[in-house]
Amino acid sequence: MNLPHYCTLHVASEKQNINIKYFKAIIGDLNLPEFDWHSLTHLCNALYNAAADFVCYNGLSQFITEPTRSNNILDVVLCSDVLGCEYINMHPPSGNSDHNTAVFEVNLSLPIYKDASAIGLVSTNYSKADWDGINSYLANCNWNVIFADCADVNQY
Hints:
By secondary structure, the chain is α+β, with helices and mostly antiparallel strands. The protein is built from four helices and five strands; from the N terminus they run αβαββββαα.
């Protein structure tokens, strides 16, 4: 995502909170070579000020700490949750790119509903079940091994 400067300025200068209730992430090439993501210091101009305001206003943290092109961190993995990304590793450029490749994991947790069917998330249709396949699978389970460490029915 290599946005022209005017697009970056337009998006960032809105200063609007991203209206997402949970996890926020922006990943791509912001092309701000004079932005020090560790200290949040930058050139004093409209583009850099707008980007800094946008990052701060939305509570985003930068997870890339190594240069992505030459000695600059041009690419970002910005997340609203400080535990949202981990295992970030930089690799050589891929394909014809002149930027290093960032490989990382995103940590998301989904809400757990006690009765998912009550809110329309789960709908059971037993008529479409593969009963022969289920029966075959269960018949071939080694139940003695599966329950070997259980002293009673409540332990599994």
